[in-house]
Design goal:
The chain is elongated. The N terminus is likely disordered. A hairpin with a 2-residue loop joins strand 17 and strand 18. The strands form two sheets. A 16-stranded antiparallel beta sheet has the order 1-2-3-4-7-8-9-10-11-12-13-14-15-16-17-18. It is an all-beta fold. The two termini are 21 Å apart. The chain folds into two domains: 107 residues, Histone H3 K4-specific methyltransferase SET7/9 N-terminal domain (Single Sheet); 87 residues, Histone H3 K4-specific methyltransferase SET7/9 N-terminal domain.
Length: 210
């Protein structure tokens, strides 16, 4: 029936213990403002430092990280730029993360991940606004899909699960329970002509009053 558009956006967990691994390129990287780079992956930080650790306000720039395991090569596409508050070397507070693919998150961070209230605008035009937990939509929020559909309701770790309202572009509106991104459980589908289907839904299909 539908997919949650946010699924393609990666968690922005990028720990940056530069006090142990970083090289100070310029400025005061102990207690002041400076620029530091991590040689192993090229990650860079520019901003305020405290006791040798990024702390205050600053900018992280991350590159894609490629790891080879046997005959396979894995690329972790966490590249992008973070601008905002930093605490003890981690993204923590209010900030903005711009992914290399064009998606943008603006909101709260905690322990180096998106946590709290925020807005994720994807490169394809889809958008999520609401609660985040451990880098994923979780709690209450609003999804606006690239095709115009709109969901308002409960989110469970990036899935439409719980109670919510889905408004379709053809004028239909479903109010009820969702599970794994589909209408599932008790609900009511109202059509533009006033017709209603009320009862149980299973895997996106109306079963009736069974």
């Amino acid at each position: 029936m539908m997919r949650v558009f946010f699924a393609a956006v990666l968690t922005v967990t990028c720990f940056f213990p530069l006090n142990a691994l970083g090289e100070c390129l310029e400025g005061d990287c102990v207690n002041g403002k400076g620029v530091m780079v991590r040689p192993d992956d090229g990650a860079k930080y520019e901003g305020e430092f405290k006791d040798g650790v990024p702390h205050g306000n600053g900018t992280f720039v991350y590159k894609n990280k490629t790891v080879k395991k046997g005959r396979s090569t894995f690329t972790y596409a966490t590249s992008g730029t973070y601008m905002g508050e930093v605490k003890n070397g981690l993204k923590d507070g209010e900030g903005k993360f711009t992914f290399s693919g064009g998606s943008v998150y603006v909101g709260s961070f905690k322990n180096d991940e998106m946590n709290g209230k925020g807005v994720m605008t994807n490169a394809n035009g889809s958008k999520y606004e609401g609660d985040f937990k451990d880098g994923k939509p979780h709690g209450q929020g609003t999804f606006i899909f690239s095709d115009g559909k709109k969901y308002v309701g409960q989110i469970n770790m990036n899935l439409l699960e719980g109670k919510g309202t889905m408004t379709f572009t053809d004028g239909r509106q479903y109010v009820g329970q969702f599970k794994k991104n589909k209408m599932h459980g008790k609900g009511v589908m109202t059509y533009p002509d006033g017709k209603k289907e009320e009862g149980r839904f299973n895997n996106g299909k109306f079963l009736g009053n069974k």
